[in-house]
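S., here's the first fold you wanted:
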Amino acid sequence: MPRSWLCVAMCAALTACGGERNAPPAAGGDARRGLEFVQSYGCMSCLVLPEVTQARGLVGPPLAGIAKRAYLGGILPNTPENMVVWLMHPQKIDPKSAMPDLGVPESAARDMTAYLYTLR
């Protein structure tokens, strides 16, 4: 099989398997626990989250596709590690941000990041 056909076959197989949903968890977190933390920290009162019907807040941007955005809070390059820091200390990164510092510990921020990186 020519190399180009092999590439096409591999891409098709990856797409059929779910692509991003089967990727390793972002920041080493657990996406299921991350959703629980997003709910327990009250993120839904300020944000819109796809597939979470009670998350219809209008303070921050909708979070669908957040993993594909270039920046977090408009200033921090969007990487899993930066998202962990943003979730833990948004006011240290941008004191003018509407996002409050909720005292999120690193382990919860890693789980929340894993969840947020699954959003489409």
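And the second, which I think is the more interesting of the pair:
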Amino acid sequence: MMKTRGRWIIDASVALKWYLRDELYITQADALYKTFSVGEAEFLAPSFIRYELANALLIASKRGRISFDTAREQLQDFLALAIHQAEDDNGLVNSAVELASSFDIAVYDALYLALARQSGNSFVTADGQLYAKVRDTFSHAIWIEDIQV
């Protein structure tokens, strides 16, 4: 189990659990969020997390999981959070392309890994397919269930 204090690279699969309450692992995501909200943890993410979360909320509203108005409100809530959104500089993008090729994952997912490697912080995800591909050889990756609540 990993303690919830410190700096974390989070992906949209984690942040989405704060808003879609019918997801798995919401207890762990909520515990991680609580440490952030009381100032015991800092979250970092590539800047495109905003677009990923916005798209996921829109899809959830189209599928009837939440209303469009709720999706819009939740997006505004997320955008107001003080999550440090890393600049996606050329070095980060180049590193992500190498990682994407190495792990056979999307460059978008690899940007989180590249940021974790670059910053030296752990990357927490609730994306089972992504975690399965990186868990054995990418030491910065943490599965959401391994977060201590």
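Why I say that: The chain has a mean pLDDT of 93. The radius of gyration is 15 Å.

Talk tomorrow,
H.
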